Amino acid sequence: MKIGFYHSLLDWHHPEFPIDGMHPQRDDEQAQAAAKGRDVSRYADYLHGQVRELLTGYGPVDYLFFDFSYPGRTWGGKGRDDWRSGELLALVRSLQPDVVVNDRLDLELEGDVLTPEQYQPTSSLSGDGRLWEACQTLNGSWGYDRDNLDWKTPDQLIRMLVDGVSKDGNLLLNVGPTGRGEFEPRAVATLDAIGRWMDQHARSVYGAGPAPYVPPPDTRYTQRGDRLYLHLFAWPFRHVHLPGLAGRVRFAQFLHDGSEIPAEVIDPARQAQNTTMSGLGADVLTLTLPVRQPDVAVPVVELFLEPQR
Hints:
Layout: E1 4-8, H1 29-34, H2 40-56, E2 63-67, H3 80-83, H4 85-95, E3 100-101, E4 113-114, E5 131-137, H5 154-166, E6 170-174, H6 185-201, E7 219-224, E8 227-232, E9 239-243, E10 249-254, E11 263-264, E12 284-288, E13 300-305
Parallel strand pairs: 1-2, 2-3, 4-5, 5-6
Antiparallel strand pairs: 7-8, 8-13, 9-12, 10-13, 11-12
């Protein structure tokens, strides 16, 4: 089990943290007047001391997630100068050289992992070699919110996970416990559903990454060695066509039950006639699927690839 710490750079309780446009007292003129003499450099001293304690008092730390900088986003917004970010990151590296640090200190080319939040990137963010993970919640809130009903469905969250892996990324999924320190029934049911899917489909995610092939519409590919995984986000009628895979697949099966899926290359010269489809190209592999979707949130076809010649 790895250990990671979430560390808020904002501290609205500290007596030296200046009120700004994000502070809960931003509209309280009396509070602002009383806070006029606050010195953010003293707060930065405290911040650095807290980080030093976390990284020296609890053994090896694997992940440090700072949250977050906001210069120019609102009046009094804070960033690298306020946190003394360069100095802070140097402290982290000196105390825990192997720790993974995220990208929210407002530094150029900062951190080891990029953290887009509450949206799915349209393409991989790993162009410069850094890791990335999409930060998502079960509903619309990071903490427990009784009245937030924007619950994502299990199959939606599974699709988000697969989408990230297909783009060489990860999913950071948040669960907010209640004031009694428990997960509410809706959260437990969602996690159970994701767990049931993972029991049968883990190898299409763990240790997998992007594939060099272009997937059909409403699908995602992941690949692990000589296994290519086709995740069907929408269920097609009877057939799915895979460009570039003719002659590359020796066997196809559903991952949830190991049942074989017929695969063929339709003669490119064949003409369409009534119930017979035309040829689709010499490089296209066609899979024949059941009419009804299997009873799994996101069906996955495992394709055993032939060795590259």
